[in-house]
Amino acid sequence: MRFGSMQAMKLTTHVLDTASGRPASGLRLVLTRLSDGAILADRRTNADGRIDGPLLEGPQSAPGPYELAFHVAEYFRAAGVALADPPFIDVVPIRFAMAENAHYHVPLLVSPWAFSTYRGS
């Protein structure tokens, strides 16, 4: 996608529980715009590990830095996974920037002991 494209800026995500090999249903995530600290979304994933609709699009979307905070320890506890106290991974904060009018997709692959992300499509 080239800068200046006619595509509107949009943000989506999904979460996969790599320990169980399934989508992470019911996982809480919070989207914050870092330039002013505004919380733009506080949602939970659906049965497919996704959010129903984009987290960000339209007038709220703007170039700049953001943070997606994935509350993974809360999710694993609710799923009945025994975690240490405190858990090895509690909240996974992913800081990223959107710089162009494009679809940004920030997925999370997570277990109680590891996580990874990438810019998806």
Task: Please write out the topology.
Layout (H helix, E strand, L loop, with lengths): L9 E3 L2 E3 L4 E2 L4 E6 L4 E7 L11 E2 L6 E8 H7 L12 E8 L4 E3 L2 E3 L4 E3 L4
Parallel strand pairs: 1-9, 2-10
Antiparallel strand pairs: 1-6, 2-3, 4-5, 4-7, 7-8, 10-11
Order of helices and strands: EEEEEEEHEEEE
As for the CATH topology, it is: Immunoglobulin-like
* Main sheet: strands, sense, barrel: 4 strands, mixed
Report the end-to-end length measured between terminal Cα atoms. 11 Å
Secondary structure tally, helices: 1
Protein model, in words:
By secondary structure, the chain is mostly beta strands. The protein has one domain (10-111): Transthyretin/hydroxyisourate hydrolase domain (Immunoglobulin-like, Sandwich). It contains one helix and eleven strands. The strands form three sheets. It has a four-stranded mixed β-sheet with strand order 3-2-10-11, with no helix packed on it. Strands 5-4-7-8 form a four-stranded antiparallel β-sheet. A three-stranded mixed β-sheet has the order 6-1-9, with no helix packed on it. It is globular and about 40 Å long.
